[in-house]
Write a structure and sequence with these properties.
The chain has a seven-stranded mixed beta sheet, covered by helices on one side. The protein has helices spanning about 15-25, 45-50, 60-65, 70-80, 100-105, 125-135, 170-205, and strands spanning about 5-10, 30-40, 55-60, 85-90, 110, 140-145, 155-165. About 40% of the residues lie in helices and about 20% in strands. By secondary structure, it is of the alpha/beta class. Bound molecules: glycinamide ribonucleotide.
Length: about 200
């Protein structure tokens, strides 16, 4: 069966990218292949992780191209040139426009560090999500993988995993546990699930 070509979009440390790379090596991801990593931040450590794994990587910076429109145009061009079937947002800290998301309907997935619909949408990203969860005093949080549409964190939910909050949690300890217990597990599983669906539909074409 033809494999689904995956591009992973990153902005920072890239631990979720690493989980995807490891899942590919261990065979959890078998219907897809990560063929490209794109960062919107030239300083992202995720770029080093791609390099170490021998995966092609490039930087598309909104600052350098001038505008969000130009950024998305360059992004589309790069995805097309590489015949990408599935886009995985793994710690990608930029909101994509409706014209972009509608072009790739059902082919963009994102990992978010909470149980959507809690602590999500504009302004909820990275450590801020965990700060908000602790401030609100919830006893359970977690992570969600969902399809990406024009509403930030509003697309159909694919997978979720809950994580218990501990009495002495700080945003940092909670972030680490949510990553270890939830994100690094469900993102590869969801990437495989959607890759398999896309690979099957490629077969039929
Ligand atoms: C992860 O916790 C991811 O879920 C979150 O940023 C972190 C990136 O870490 N993403 C968002 O908040 C998106 N709204 P990583 O670069 O080590 O994967």
């Amino acid at each position: 069966m033809l494999k689904t070509k995956i591009a992973v979009l990153v902005s920072g440390g890239g631990t979720n990218l690493q989980a995807l790379i490891d899942a590919q090596a261990s065979g959890i991801i078998k219907s897809g292949e990560i063929t490209l990593v794109i960062s919107n931040n030239p300083e992202a450590y995720a770029l080093e992780r791609a390099k170490a794994a021998g995966i092609a990587a490039c930087v598309i910076s909104r600052k350098l191209v001038g505008s969000m429109d130009a950024f998305e145009q360059k992004l589309c061009q790069t995805l097309d040139e590489n015949s990408i079937d599935l886009i995985v947002l793994a710690g990608f800290m930029s909101i994509l426009s409706e014209s972009f998301t509608s072009r790739y309907r059902g082919r963009i997935i994102n990992i978010h560090p909470s149980l959507i619909p809690s602590f999500c949408g504009k302004g909820f990203y990275g450590l801020r999500v965990h700060e908000a969860a602790l401030e609100r005093g919830v006893k359970v949080t977690g992570a969600t993988v969902h399809f990406v549409n024009e509403i930030p964190d509003g697309g159909e939910i694919i997978m979720q995993k809950a994580v218990a909050i501990r009495k002495n949690d700080t945003p940092e300890t909670l972030q680490k546990r949510v990553m270890q217990q939830a994100e690094w597990k469900i993102l590869p599983m969801a990437a495989e699930k959607i890759s398999k669906l896309i690979a099957k539909s490629k077969e039929r074409q």
